């Protein structure tokens, strides 16, 4: 016994039109095809779906129940079309963006929305590893991360370049230094990020290259937690230079062993293409021209 979408649509069309001919006209198929759908379903389930009176087909109570289902199915189809179309239009479209750091991604989002104010933006945040996986799983449409390796699966565009700096409390003696070394930092309580953080990868590389294996005083799972720990005088943390727009309390101190700049890129899956994504990548090009001015404000 087979209940197909075509049969349910045929029943609903006949009920609305009062005849096989009107149902066929509404569905833009042949009258025999519509009649066959109805009669086969009646025969297979041993039911009566229509009563004929004065040449008009009237739905039975059972048929009306099926028509209610048909209407819900039609609404579900319309909603599916709306969801799909929102990802490929600049008018009331929707874009999901993954960010590893608040900045410079948020600055880019702000510029993009000035150009396209009707687009709905959803932002997902997480570690470098989490956001990369979200792109691969198609949970986000596009992401902004530093130090993204070359990968043929991704469409990439450079946003800016930045390095990692130490962040210290203003009462710390380090706040008065023009720059510090990894050796000098070994004397401080260090606040590290957990595995999967792009910041921590850079910090680990720098200390290893300098010949040190530091044991952190604290290991925290988010950038904001590290920032707050430094604000409360718990130690020295590390941050991408443009990793946050906050300018309160904390001092950024360059680390001579961490001067290498890494590309901060916008990337999406290479096989994804839409009007929205193309518009976002166009905004990246415009942002990059003024990135230094925007990020140092």
UniProtKB/TrEMBL annotation:
Cited PROSITE patterns: HTH_LYSR
Gene3D superfamilies xref list: 3.40.190.290, Winged helix-like DNA-binding domain superfamily/Winged helix DNA-binding domain (1.10.10.10)
Cross-referenced InterPro entries: LysR_HTH_N, LysR_subst-bd, WH-like_DNA-bd_sf, WH_DNA-bd_sf
Residue ranges constituting the HTH lysR-type domain according to the UniProt record: 3-60
Keyword Cell wall biogenesis/degradation recorded: no
MF terms in GO: DNA-binding transcription factor activity; transcription cis-regulatory region binding
Keywords: DNA-binding, Transcription, Transcription regulation
Keyword Transcription regulation annotated: yes
SUPFAM superfamilies: Periplasmic binding protein-like II, Winged helix' DNA-binding domain
Stated family: Belongs to the LysR transcriptional regulatory family.
PANTHER family (alphabetical): HTH-TYPE TRANSCRIPTIONAL REGULATOR, LYSR FAMILY TRANSCRIPTIONAL REGULATOR
Name this polypeptide is given: LysR family transcriptional regulator
UniProt organism field: Roseibium aggregatum
